[in-house]
Amino acid sequence: MRVGFAKLPERVAVIGVGILGASVGWNLSRHGAKVVFIDAGQPGEGVTDWSFSWVNASNKTARKSYFDLNVAGMAAHRELARAIGPDSWWYPSGHLRWADDPAAEAKLLKTAGLLAERDYRVEVYTGAEVRRRLEPALTMPGEVPVVFYGDEAWVHGRHLVGRLVGQAVASGAELRSGTAVCDVGTGADGSIRTVGLSDGSCLDVDIVVNAAGPNASHVAGLVARHLPMRREPGAVTRIGCAQVPVHRAMHAPHVEIRPDGDGSVLLHSREIDVLVDTGEDPAQLARRLHESARHVVPELGNSRIAQTRVAHRPIPADGFPSVGAVPSVPGYYEAVTHSGITLGPVVGRLLASEILSGKRDELLADFRPERFSP
After folding, report:
1. Handedness of CA 199, 201, 203, 208 (dihedral sign)
2. 197: exposed, middle or buried (C-beta count within 10 Å: 0-12, 13-18, 19+)?
């Protein structure tokens, strides 16, 4: 089925093949557009693979329109799982969160109450109930309140990207991996005409989608566009386990923990992230993460640190997505955001529809790229 459009673009270059680029390209390809995926590395192996990969809207309450977009993102994941199969990427097992000091606990419960008022699925258990019913390997006070968001999930981002790109390529899309974009050419009217690659090739294109994640500002600069980005590095560690002792994503005090498939557990902490720029060795950051996780899941004390990476989150300067056309450069579109895992499927669908039909969806009204124009 094709969305309504007058004429298909001859060729769409999707720059960056993480979750956002893969989702946009897959949606374009299934509606008949000619897509070429371009990535300086390999699909799904950048920041998509080094993210907590938690599908949620419970952490997105600051602006109602952003909350609504993330709720739509959660629904889009469920639709995508039905469309392509859950395979090894989709894990809708819910999410646990608890705190260890009165102020943080009060804030957590206040947010849970707000979400319940918005008909978001929220349950509150005691620590003892969580250990008995959900996660027996955890250690926590028996009386501590634990919020359970049952509709949340985690995603294996690299597997999902591989699935989307594989399907798109099977239906005619082209993949150029291991080559960077070094030039974007425009015509006399300022519209997109070509993309030059680091291997010396030059592609004739009608549309460019900037889904380049941490490199999105650089790609924007190739069309003389200023896209201000935050600098927010994050340290992520994978722990190898003979048997994975946890069943779902969780925010414990001081550390985030989730299964990662393939006999591993993934760890992250905002408290550790603030140490990245102090010059502390990533191996030491990994040991800190491992130690924090061991206090929550004692069985992880017997596991080994397998991989650690410091990744740079792709966050526009005001913290919100930049998605859609840039009117000053006809044919140039952006798909740049934090929470790309949650938002990938919905942004992919909405932006593909905008490219093919010209219709701008109201869900994206607060997140248009024009707000960064001088």
Report:
1. positive
2. middle
> Mind listing the pLDDT tens digit for each residue in 62-89?
999 999 999 999 999 999 999 999 999 9
CB 91 within 8 A of CB 154: yes
Q: Please state the separation of Cα 336 from the chain's center in Å.
A: 10
For residue 25, give the H/E element and its range. Answer: helix 19-30
Using CA atoms, how far residue 90 sits from 44, 45, 323, in Å, is 15, 17, 24
Q: Which two tokens stand for residue 208?
A: 């460019």
List the structure tokens of 343.
């938002």
Give residue 308's pLDDT. 97
> Is the pLDDT assigned to residue 3 strictly greater than 60?
no
Rounded-to-integer distance, Cα 121 and Cα 97, Å: 14
Beta strands in 111-224 (DSSP E): 123-126, 145-149, 153-155, 174-177, 181-186, 192-197, 202-204, 207-210
Q: How far is CA 42 from CA 37, 185, 219, 291, 344, in A?
A: 11, 24, 18, 32, 18
Backbone angles phi, psi at 355, to 5 degrees: -65, -40
User: Residue 10: pLDDT band by 50, 70, 90 thresholds?
Assistant: confident
Among 230, 40, 299, 251, which residue's Cα sits nearest to residue 147?
251
- Cα separation, 280 vs 303, whole angstroms: 23
Separation CA 66–CA 71 (nearest Å): 9
Identity (one letter) of the amino acid at 342?
T
Dihedral angle computed from the Cα positions of residues 193, 322, 20 and 86, in that order, rounded to the nearest 10 degrees: -140
pTM over 0.85: yes
Q: How far apart are CA 79 and CA 26, in angstroms?
A: 14
pLDDT band at 55 (very low <50, low <70, confident <90, very high): very high
The token pair at 258 is: 């989730």
